[in-house]
What we know:
The complex is a heterodimer of chains A (about 350) and B (about 325).
Chain A: H1 4-9, E1 15-17, H2 26-34, E2 39-42, H3 48-61, E3 66-71, H4 77-86, E4 91-95, H5 100-108, E5 112-117, H6 120-129, E6 133-137, H7 150-160, E7 165-168, H8 174-183, E8 187-190, H9 192-195, H10 204-212, E9 218-221, E10 229-232, H11 235-241, H12 247-261, H13 265-272, H14 278-297, H15 320-343
Parallel strand pairs in A: 1-8, 2-3, 3-4, 4-5, 5-6, 6-7, 7-8
Antiparallel strand pairs in A: 9-10
Chain B: H1 5-10, E1 16-18, H2 27-35, E2 41-43, H3 50-63, E3 69-73, H4 83-92, E4 97-101, H5 109-114, E5 118-123, H6 126-135, E6 139-143, H7 158-168, E7 173-176, H8 182-190, E8 195-198, H9 212-220, E9 226-229, E10 237-240, H10 243-253, H11 258-265, H12 267-276, H13 299-320
Helix pairs in contact in B: 2-3, 3-4, 8-13
Amino acid sequence: MKTRMTELFGIKHPIMLAGMSMVAVPKLAAAVSNAGGLGMLATGPLTPDQTRQAIREIRSLTDKPFAVNVTFILPNARENAQVIIEEKVPVVNYALGRGDWLINAVHEYGGKVIGTVVMMRHAVRSEKDGADALIVTGHEAAAHGGDVTSLVLIPHIASNVKIPIIAAGGFCDGKGLVAALALGAEGISMGTRFLLTKEAEVHETVKRLCLNAGIEDTVYTDSIDGLPGRFLKTRIAEIMASKRVSIIRSMSSALEIKRMLGVSWWRLITSGLRGRSPQELARQAVAVSSLRSLLDGGDEKDALLPIGQVTGRIDDVPTVKELIDRIIAEAEQVMGAISAKVRA
Amino acid sequence: MFKTRVTEILGVDYPLIVGTMQDISTGEFVAAAANAGAFACIASAMFMSKETLRNEIRKTKSLTDKPFGVNINLFPMLRPISIEEYIDTVIEEGVGVIETSGRSPEPYIDRIKKANVKLMHKCARVRDARTAERIGVDIVEIVGFECGGHPSMEEVTTLVLLPRVVDTVKIPVVGGGGFGDARGFVAALALGAEGVLMGTRFMAVRECNLHPNFKKAFVKANETDTVIVQRSLSDPIRVMRNKTALQVLEMEKRGTTLEELIPFIAGDTRRRATAEGDIDSGLMACGQVVGLIHDVPTMKEVVDSIINGAIAIYERLGKTLKPAG
């Protein structure tokens, strides 16, 4: 399959891995790239040293193009971006902030940059700043989608920018890929679907929770990590969504995060989460530590898992290659069926 | 062109269904849609007696020889005549399709089936679609979170909900919510729909009786200019973000009673606003897809642009999907 996305990145299939913190790690990223898609490493929870190590690990696992993401609101973003530039990562994705300086630096060594957006204003700005492509995230996505759904947001942004668009939020199969292409996207980005593959290194409990969830089993709220986002409907997610969370728990989680990222309190508060209140910071800390304990230890009681509505459409755990091959085959079959309808 | 089980059952040219809209889906409106090759239903709730409904059906027939349907809203409310009387009138007038919405049509299904009338049911959850299939509905229409009017409390978007329903039932599925142009039309078919439902798009057409001020507001609105109100009443409705909508949201946030809300949310308030062209009074149902609407063409121009656009998209995709290299 050939689209502006496959041509821009030099990949075989217009499918990429979403930058899920603690899930989009070297093994999964390399598996997606090796299967002909675009793998991605998430650097949100990584120190600069860990980021460098992870990039090198991906290079040891694949010689195909891959991407690394950086989320600007997180405390280590600047330093991680510096590492990404030094390592000359082929494709860089940025989210939740302005990327002009990063775009210039990546273009200097010949890399490509993708901006992640959830609204028109940011899409136009990213294009103006020089981004090569956009990931457009709809309301149905895991974590930080906006109010507008993929079916409306994708064609709207596609009409208003010239750079290729990669659709994210609500995609898991060949039907969705054809829908995305019809709406004006040049490919899809998937998170939840790749979380449910053999190569995803998360605890079995996580996979079981997602497989069992229905399409209605997510909550969308801004009271978990301070930004509107979508999480699996668990006991703790519902408690936090209703804004009842103990300050003691928040502070101890925040301490854990501070340790994990190896940054000082001062840095955590000033450089990282500019303009956000200590409560928001604490909530974010709870979110991250709950995610970590779930992904590593399978502690489902306090599970806070960013997950898309599409989890309710997924009922198997294939290998990454099986999944990508199946999506492409199904997309071709769906096109054949529509083609028959056009001619009929 | 684009033949599906839905076009067969309804006898319509294209698998394109105009959403039934209270106070808009009159005989003239429905006939214009039918003449353009789409399928529409008269909103029977606008008619207070068997005779006025009968006259409207006859008027529609005088304006088109294409098939059309009649919607019967089963949502519990005060009615001047019984649901059975509405159904019998439709049957007596020889209309081939009834569309139900608001509640399960189970209590009336024998009456409808015995008359050999096709039944299309509109709902917003997987479990309601499953029920519709079980009781013998011919076509199920499913609407997602982005739709104008009534999405479900579960807030699942059409992109996820529609294929989930297609995978769950064997009867043909019509998808709605978020579709307003050729791109959405092809996307819906790709997701497994055999018909595509559009409401908001058909509010901004010449034949629609809405006050021009509202049509202008639709053309100006962008995709973030809708909100969901009445969540507190467990009856969510997506409407245009106007003064009334924001006021209702505010009242709901601080906790208010139905009695206090009624003056703002009542149909009469909207009808008065609609008549006067006052876009800030009353709640006007409107989908997120309003952000993709930039003109007020004729019904036929809309239908033609969707069908011709869909063919062009199909040709573009045909090239894309050839294996690389």
